[in-house]
Design brief:
Specific and highly efficient GDP-D-glucose phosphorylase regulating the levels of GDP-D-glucose in cells. α1 crosses α2 and α5 packs across α6. The protein has three domains: about 90 residues, Alpha-Beta Plaits, CATH 3.30.70.100; about 120 residues, Immunoglobulin-like (Sandwich); about 260 residues, 2-Layer Sandwich (HIT family, subunit A), CATH 3.30.428. The chain has about 500 residues and is an alpha+beta fold. About 5% of the residues have low confidence. Strands 5, 6, 7, 8, 9, 10, 11, 12 and 13 form a nine-stranded antiparallel sheet that branches. Strands 16-17-18-20-19-22-23-21 form an eight-stranded antiparallel sheet. Strands 2-3-1-4 form a four-stranded antiparallel sheet, with helices on one face. It is globular and about 65 Å long. It contains ten helices and 24 strands. β2 and β3 form a beta hairpin.
Length: about 500
């Protein structure tokens, strides 16, 4: 297993060795201070998964650590599994090809209670349906009757007759052993092997690979300092998939309706910035997380959202000191795409609400957050640039993560955004990775503006809702929400102008 480790001296190396020498089944193969690289040999006798080893290094040696590659052969894979129907089951399973068609499997799965579970690779990568009923038969059996302790199952084992190349794109399914019912699943995606991931610094920000992990820790520090109006811990929000064609996601978050800061009264798409109203120059130091910069004009400050919609929900404020109004710019869209590219998590999302499209503060900002539930939009297909959704929108796929490719997509998006401003239409944007994680998708919805004060105890159509993610403010709302209601909500702001979809 290859890790990036933030080590700079022999003292750091000594702490690493001391920590790792205490672990059964773990042998240090290489520590390279200059390259900030750690390579370990992990056997089936290890009591700790790769994820747990990383956590122990951080906790005991005080060294920020990122997993970079698994396995010495030509192919490795990983699957991030998530529960269905609101089950808070999450986990990571890593697979590495060995000789003689064998495969080493290392996994950790949380949220299982006291269940015994089975883990298998299934025929198809179709995760639709409330109970993963479209994954097909078992393709490669991995394990059965795995025990869990304190809700966690941690396992390492070798599987025979397993060609990883034939598993990519299929599903990895966690099933309850007794009932043989699927409770979590994920797509098997190609991963880096040892030496296969040479990237250490992101070109868009100069941030090292481990800094995203530090940024999550800063979010937790801000929680401890009381910077949030309410606390959301990872996996703590009640979540469910709404039955129907679109697999909409519903979450119960009553505090957001009661405790969030009251939104500004918006009157037009081009309201000027008002320094007398609340803006992000007035936040406390505890709410600042970090800076990100591509060039002098393409830079932003990342701050907490003190009324979060999900775990890790933060705000990207472009050129905070310049007090820009909530009007989308090419630089901020470019930076948002780079932010999604920078993240190593497929669950990382970003969104933008224009004025008149549920923006609550007239100071330019994007939402960023982690949502460990698969969106239907990740796997939706339409080469025409539009897609099958309750309200018409546009999809732009960034297939090559180069500056020229991203700038080309930004210009395509802005042809539509300019039309919005010229015709008085509000707009919402949503950015996520596709199902395989290889493509970044930008979604744009053009809609009727909705000005005036909002009722925070209802669901207002914004980028979350257009993406299929509905935040419910009461238990009754959460229990009764239906796909038909969600579709009707979107259609309340649908435009009748068809010209934009014909150009």
């Amino acid at each position: 297993v290859e890790f990036s480790v933030e080590v700079n001296c022999e003292s750091c190396e000594q702490k690493l060795n001391k920590t790792l020498n205490e672990l059964t089944g773990v042998k240090v193969a290489e520590v390279n201070i200059k390259e900030q690289r750690l390579i370990l040999e992990v056997s089936e006798e290890s009591k700790h998964s790769i994820e747990e080893i990383r956590d122990l290094i951080e906790q005991k040696a005080g060294v920020t650590t990122v997993i970079k590659g698994v396995g010495a052969n030509k192919i490795a894979a990983v699957s991030e599994v998530h529960g269905n129907s609101g089950k808070n089951v999450v986990g990571v399973v890593r697979l590495s090809q060995l000789l003689n068609n064998k495969c080493f499997v290392d996994g950790v799965i949380d949220g299982l209670g006291d269940l015994k579970t089975g883990v298998n690779i299934h025929e198809y990568g179709d995760l639709t349906g409330n109970n993963f009923e479209n994954v097909g038969a078992i393709f490669i059996p991995i394990a059965s009757n795995l025990s869990s302790h304190s809700g966690r199952s941690s396992f390492r084992l070798t599987v025979s007759n397993c060609d990883l190349t034939s598993c990519i794109g299929r599903s990895l399914v966690v099933s309850e052993s007794e009932k043989q019912t699927a409770i979590a699943a994920g797509i098997v995606a190609r991963a880096s092997v040892i030496g296969g991931n040479t990237k250490k610094v992101c070109a868009c920000s100069g941030k090292t690979l481990w800094e995203e992990r530090q940024d999550k820790n800063k979010n937790n520090e801000a929680q401890n300092k009381g910077a949030f109006r309410y606390i959301i811990n990872k996996g703590s929000i009640e979540t469910k998939i709404i039955p129907g064609k679109y697999n909409f996601i519903a979450q119960l978050n009553p505090e957001r309706g009661i405790l969030r800061r009251k939104p500004h009264l918006m009157r037009s798409l081009k309201m000027p910035f008002d320094e007398k109203s609340f803006n992000f120059t007035k936040i406390k130091n505890d709410e600042l997380l970090f800076q990100i910069q591509l060039n002098s004009s393409c830079r932003a400050t990342i701050i907490i959202n003190n009324s979060p919609i999900e775990f890790g929900n933060s705000l990207m404020v472009p050129r905070l000191d310049e007090c820009l109004p909530q009007v989308l710019t090419e630089d901020s869209l470019k930076l948002a795409i780079f932010m999604v590219a920078l993240s190593g998590h497929r669950s990382f999302r970003m969104g933008f609400n224009s004025l008149g499209a549920a923006a609550s503060v007239n100071h330019q900002h994007w939402h960023l957050y982690y949502l460990d539930v698969e969106h239907k939009l990740e796997d939706i297909h339409d080469d025409s640039g539009t897609f099958d959704w309750p309200i018409k929108g546009f999809i732009f796929d960034v297939k090559e993560l180069t500056l020229s490719s991203i700038e080309n997509i930004v210009k395509q998006v802005f042809k539509k955004v300019d039309y919005c401003f010229n015709n008085g239409y509000a707009h919402n944007l949503f950015i996520t990775r596709n199902k395989s994680g290889e493509t970044i998708r930008v979604f744009l919805w053009i809609r009727q503006p909705d000005y005036g004060l909002k009722d925070d105890m209802t669901i207002n159509p914004a980028f979350c809702e257009f993406s299929g993610f509905f935040i419910c403010k009461t238990q009754e709302m959460f229990e009764k929400i239906s796909e038909q209601q969600c579709q009707q909500l979107m259609k309340t702001v649908e435009i009748t102008d068809t010209q934009i979809f014909e150009d």
